[in-house]
Structures are given as structure tokens and as C-alpha cells.
Automatic annotation (TrEMBL):
Any one biological process term the GO annotation gives: cilium movement
GO cellular component: microtubule cytoskeleton
Residue runs in coiled coils: none
Organism: Perkinsus olseni (Perkinsus atlanticus)
Name by which UniProt lists this protein: Sperm-associated antigen 6, variant 2
A molecular-function term among this protein's GO annotations: microtubule binding
InterPro entries listed in its UniProt record: ARM-like, ARM-type_fold, Armadillo
Length: 179
């Protein structure tokens, strides 16, 4: 429900459900982790204020830990949530970077699952779009060279996310465009 309504997303925050979800990310099975990451993403997507509430609940560290989970669907849900948090403002994107997400998103991009590759590239694009410094973080983690290799991939969804990520990095200045 929080996915479709700002008001319901706000009620998840005001009823203090976020800390329970965050706690469960580190304690529960893969099904709970995936569902919890989905709810965190659903809340964060609506506004910078709701995304900040997700950050304030301590979710970043738990979501980053989930990027190391064995289950690819947990990694995907976490990457998706981190991207939705980062897309709003440069401050939120910096918080995602400071939580250690970028190197793990680059590792997730190297996994064989297409949906995980798409979400990882999308999250990296959401981070890189704000400032040259954030884009440089993606470059420094080795993201651009790995992502560029997938330009010729047969999957159009992956190709779109690859182009978006490369464009978000390159738009800032000539040096980043030439990476």
C-alpha cells in the first residue's frame, strides 16, 4: 500500500514501522528481507523527506549488508531501495555512498542475474547523476568500465540502464565523459 500512496507511506513512518523493518533485515530469512527492502523502497520513492526518514531509521547499513546476501533477489530489492533513496538529492546520494554501497553495487552488477544487473546499474546512475564527485565515486569503484562492457548486451532493459548510468556519469564534465 505504501507503494501507491504518499499518505500510506507517511503512516508507515509515523507508526514507527521502519525500525522494525530495519531490524528484520539483519535477522530474518530471505523472504522477509526482500519484502522489507520493498517496503523501504516504497516509502523512500515518494519524496526526499520520506527517503530521509528511511535513512534516519538506520536502513542504509542494513540495505548495504543485504547487497552481500546469498540470494540474488534480496540483493536486487536492496539495490532498488538504495537507488530510490539516492535519486532524490545529492545529500541522500552521499549518504548511500557513505554507507559503502557503491563497491557492492558494482559487485552486484557482475552477477549473472539480469534483473540484479539492471537494478545495480540503475542505482549507480541514481548516485552518479547529482554531482561530479558522486560520479567519480562510481568511476573509482570500477563501475564505468564494467558497465560499458554490457553496451552490446541483447537485453534491451539492461542496455537502457547501462546507457543511463554511463550518461549520468559523463554529463558532468569532459574528464568523466572520456573515462
Amino acid at each position: 500500500l505504501a507503494n501507491h500512496s504518499d499518505e500510506l507511506a507517511e503512516s508507515v513512518v509515523t507508526h514507527e514501522i521502519l525500525p522494525q523493518l530495519v531490524h528484520g533485515l539483519g535477522q530474518q530469512n530471505r523472504f522477509f528481507k526482500k519484502a522489507a527492502a520493498f517496503v523501504l523502497r516504497a516509502v523512500a520513492k515518494h519524496s526526499p523527506q520520506l527517503a530521509q526518514a528511511v535513512v534516519d531509521s538506520g536502513a542504509l547499513e542494513s540495505l548495504v549488508e543485504c547487497l552481500e546476501d546469498f540470494d540474488p533477489s534480496v540483493k536486487e530489492a536492496s539495490a532498488w531501495a538504495l537507488g530510490y533513496i539516492a535519486r532524490h538529492t545529492k545529500e541522500l546520494a552521499l549518504a548511500v555512498v557513505d554507507a559503502g554501497a557503491v563497491p557492492l553495487l558494482v559487485l552486484c552488477f557482475q552477477e549473472p542475474e539480469l534483473t540484479l544487473k539492471r537494478m545495480s546499474a540503475s542505482a549507480l546512475a541514481d548516485i552518479a547523476k547529482h554531482t561530479p564527485e558522486l560520479a567519480q565515486t562510481v568511476v573509482d569503484a570500477g563501475g564505468v568500465s564494467l558497465i560499458a562492457r554490457e553496451l552490446g548486451h541483447a537485453d534491451s532493459g539492461l542496455k537502457r540502464q547501462v546507457c543511463s548510468c554511463l550518461g549520468q556519469v559523463a554529463k558532468h564534465n569532459v574528464d568523466l565523459a572520456e573515462v
